[in-house]
Amino acid sequence: MKQLPLLLIKGRIVIAFAFATVALAKPDIAPVMIVSLMAMGPITDILDGIISRQSGIAIQRLRGWDSNAGQFF
User: Fold this and answer.
1) What is the pLDDT of residue 32?
2) What's the pLDDT at 31?
3) 66: how many CB neighbours lie within 10 A of its CB?
4) Which residues contact 51 (CB under 8 A, 6 or more apart)?
5) CA triplet 8, 9, 15: central angle to 5 degrees?
6) Res 14: pLDDT
7) What is the pLDDT of residues 31-55, one digit of tens each?
8) Among 23, 43, 45, which Cα is nearest to 33's?
9) Pairwise CA distance, residues 72 & 52, whole Å
């Protein structure tokens, strides 16, 4: 459970790469996929914040990762 917030943050980075890949490689289905991926970004951000606060692992390193992933996304 303690690794879940970090996995969600790293997942948001993967989602950002998928977002760029879909936009460049599949322009015919891009609108539907991009909207889906754009919705997943904030959802993972909210979930990692809630889970890390409830489990008491909201440490500075995790906040730094979250901030960097948010800027990247």
Assistant:
1) 84
2) 85
3) 20
4) 1, 4, 5, 8
5) 85
6) 93
7) 888 889 889 989 999 998 899 888 8
8) 23
9) 20
